[in-house]
Specification:
Elements: H1 3-16, E1 20-21, H2 34-57, H3 78-99, H4 107-132, H5 138-147, H6 157-175, H7 179-199, H8 219-228, H9 230-239, H10 241-266, H11 276-305, E2 308-309, H12 313-319, H13 322-335, H14 353-379
Helix pairs in contact: 2-3, 2-12, 2-13, 2-14, 3-6, 3-8, 3-11, 4-5, 4-6, 4-13, 4-14, 6-7, 7-8, 7-11, 10-11, 13-14
Length: about 400
């Protein structure tokens, strides 16, 4: 028996257990509520860990002897899943701004500092693991890891990006009297950020290590735009709901095929293939194709939620520790893969993919809970206490 069939069956049950489908003329009016988006984010962070496991087990760039198929569908999904998180993050920021008086007054201390602390705690933990696994970065390398200028945990690219855009959100809405210009500023910075990313070649030393730093970032300003005009957009989508649902679903596959053509034929992210003069426009063209995928994928998720009310408590709980789970799962993906970060042997190489998934999930959940306890304890230190 191929146990991967059971994995996908159980995954479908997990995602839709407790869900209720709204009847004709009925809508899930809470589809953007905190509860519904937390469940969605719980499912999304779980799939992000599957994406990283898939990259470790069956990505085509590995040697053939290390490729074990089963999770192939998750290999290309990383940027689509990050798109959902970016959209939810900016949507939540805007709604909080409009419903919580004085929201920006302590924004840096309440929203940015805790995430930055989590980032450095994660980096410190990963550095310890790297050293225990035999890496010898030297004094300068250790200092770069400890300062965060070099990432010990490669998954923290998202944390760096979200911290940056949280700060841009804060500045834009702090100094603009109207929402329109503030959102426009966030859009402009997003475009500049993407262009900057397109100038930077793939590398393993500093920030902006590759296209994943910017190929889904458009969803951050789009989340703000949706939040501002949510009532009008929702009313519009309800009028032709089935059409928009099917269009977004078909659009995911059509846009993905277009992005593949752009990445592998017309454009591409690797400048050396085309020569330096063309690398930036080619990378921007590839990013534009993947932005379209992100828009379709995110739209489909929320259109589905308009008719399907999620009620999964397990995913709700996971949605409450998405940051902790995201930061911790990567170390176990590496510890039980065919090697550890390509520089040494892993602790145990689990070749059986279903067993590998189960072990990584169990360890990641336990580590996420422990990391949360550590993180919250650090945030109680006097230096981080908010003075009203």
């Amino acid at each position: 028996m191929d146990w991967m069939y059971l994995f996908y069956f159980l995954l479908a049950i997990l995602f839709f257990y407790g869900a209720k489908i709204c009847g004709k003329g009925e809508w899930n009016d809470e589809f953007t509520s905190l509860k519904q988006t937390k469940i969605l984010q719980g499912a999304t962070v779980l799939m992000i860990s599957f994406h990283h496991m898939a990259q470790k087990t069956c990505a085509p760039w590995h040697e053939r002897k290390f490729i074990i198929h089963g999770m192939d569908v998750f290999v290309p999904m990383g940027y689509m899943l990050c798109a959902v998180f970016l959209f939810c993050s900016s949507y939540g920021l805007y709604k909080s701004l409009k419903t919580k008086p004085g929201y920006l007054k302590h924004f840096v201390r309440r929203r940015i500092v805790p995430i930055a602390v989590a980032y450095y705690l994660s980096e410190f933990i990963y550095l310890i693991v790297r050293l225990l696994m035999g890496e010898k970065p030297g004094v300068s390398g250790i200092l770069l890891y400890l300062t965060g200028l070099r990432m010990a945990n490669f998954n923290t690219w998202y944390i760096i990006a979200i911290l940056f855009f949280y700060f841009i959100f804060y500045l834009a809405f702090r100094f603009c009297k109207k929402d329109g210009p503030a959102i426009l500023i966030v859009f402009a910075v997003t475009l500049l950020y993407t262009v900057l990313g397109a100038f930077i070649d793939h590398q393993d030393v500093w920030f902006m290590r590759g296209e994943w730093w910017y190929n889904s970032i458009i969803m951050f300003p789009l989340g703000l735009l949706f939040a501002k005009y949510e009532a009008k957009i929702t009313a519009f989508l309800k009028k032709g709901y089935l059409f928009w649902l099917l269009l977004s679903f078909a659009g995911i596959f059509a846009a993905y095929q277009l992005s593949q053509v752009l990445n592998n034929g017309v454009c591409g992210y690797y400048g050396e293939t085309w020569g330096d003069p063309l690398k930036v426009p080619h990378r921007l063209g590839s990013a534009a194709g993947e932005w379209l995928v992100c828009i379709c994928y995110t739209a489909f998720n929320f259109l589905l939620l308009m008719k399907v009310r999620l009620g999964n408590r397990a995913l709700m709980l996971l949605g409450g520790i998405t940051l902790e789970y995201y930061l911790m799962h990567g170390v176990f993906v590496e510890l039980f893969g065919f090697n550890f970060l390509d520089f040494t042997k892993s602790i145990v190489y689990i070749k059986n993919v279903p067993v590998y998934i189960a072990v990584v999930l169990a360890c990641s959940l336990a580590a996420a809970v422990l990391f949360r306890l550590l993180w919250k304890s650090v945030m109680k230190l006097p230096v981080f206490r908010l003075k009203e």
